[in-house]
Each structure stands twice: as C-alpha cells, then as structure tokens.
Amino acid sequence: MKRKALLLGVAMALAGPCAIAQAAQPANGSGVQAGAIDQEAIQALKTMGAYLLSLQRFQVSTELSGERVLADGQKLQHTAAARLDVSRPNKIKASISSARSEREILYDGKVVTIYAPSQKYYSSIAMVDTLGGLIQQLENRYGIELPLADLFAWGTSNAPTGTIDSAMNAGQDIVDGDVCEHYAFRQGKIDWQIWIAAGSRPLPRKLVITDRSDEARPQSVSTIRWTTSPRFSDSVFTFAAPKGARQIEAVPLTNQ
C-alpha cells in the first residue's frame, strides 16, 4: 500500500464535473487563480498537525479504494483497509488487509515485528526509536511503508507544506455525518484533497489523491475514522508468535 495512496497512506468522486467545479469555489464566490496558495488552507494543515501531535493514545482506521489503469486505459478499482493502535512516543500496531494480502506490524519501543497471518511467517527486528524514526527506518532500510504514515509527519518539520504548488479552500462538506472543511492542493504531479473536521477537533476525515503523471488520472479515496479515547492496553503492541508460526529473517534493501 503506497503512501501516496494512503495519506499525503491516501477514487471516484461522487459528484459530476460541474458539481466539483462549483464546490471548488471559495465561500466568498470569488475566482481562484491557477497556482495560487491560500494561506488559510496552509494554516488549516498546520492546525490539524498540531492537534494530531497532541493525541497521545488513539485508534485510527481507514478504508481505501484505489484505481489501477490497464494498457488500454481501462480502470480497475481495488479496496484495502487498515487500522492503527497508537501510543506515543514509540508504540504502534498496524493491521492491513486486502483481498490479496494481510499484514500486521507491531512495535513496542524495542522490537518491531512484521507478521503475515495467512502464511504464518514473521520477522522481528530490534529497533529503539520514536514512531517517526520507526517509519523512516522501515521505509529506508526495508522498503516497508506503514499505512497512514503521513499522519506522523503533520505538525513536525517533515510536514510537506513547503512543497505545495497551490492551495485552496473548497468550502464545507459532510463526511460520515460530520461537518468538514474541504481543501484542495497541488504538489508536482499529484493533486490531493483533504476533508478536516470543523470545530475544536480538526481531524482528517477523508483524502482523495489524483495522479496527474498518468493521463488516465487514477485516483484513490481514503475515509478515515478516529477513536481518541481508546481502551486498548500496551500488551497489544507486543508480538506473541501463534502456534505454528515460523520466524524468517528481515533482509535490508540491497542499496543499504
């Protein structure tokens, strides 16, 4: 599950092109110049990031639909789901599932384990780091990308606000019954939209990503749900090998 398909992880828009164009106008009805950066939209990302950093224990889940484009231009849609149990600064459990695979990643602050329940294979790696460091090490050394990884970048110096080419406020919308502020951004060959809950809990609730490097414009849509007062205990972060599970070696990337 690629990060850009999960969260800048990370589908088809429900409204038609005319409705989308109308919704993309600012609340005051004025036009938006191509490439303009609305500082209100940038500030909304910073406010969201600060709130995310304030959450010490939480559970977040996402349902993702993404598109694969065939050689003749036909699009195929696929779905996946993920759930994270998080305890800052250094504990996480990620469960990822799709029709093709199922994976779990557990980190208790000392050891990270990657487990494939269907095959009953697992690898454990000694690692002492924060969640941000864990995410970077998994990706850079082993090519493993944690779902919703960008949630841990917002509010930090790694947040990609400095590389945004255009930003706009697209008005308000409803996601799962909650009123959200809808923002649209462009970064290089990627267009992305984010719906942030209005009010005192500015949580990201939905993400749409469009790949403009492909003329077919494939999209992914992620709906994000939150529990900010979870009931899990720290035992969920420690891996206990099920009966019959086999340990295999985690091999770093060859360019390391």
From TrEMBL:
<keyword id="KW-0732">Signal</keyword>
<dbReference type="InterPro" id="IPR029046">
    <property type="entry name" value="LolA/LolB/LppX"/>
</dbReference>
<protein>
    <recommendedName>
        <fullName>DUF2092 domain-containing protein</fullName>
    </recommendedName>
</protein>
<feature type="signal peptide">
    <location>
        <begin position="1"/>
        <end position="23"/>
    </location>
</feature>
<dbReference type="Pfam" id="PF09865">
    <property type="entry name" value="DUF2092"/>
</dbReference>
<dbReference type="InterPro" id="IPR019207">
    <property type="entry name" value="DUF2092"/>
</dbReference>
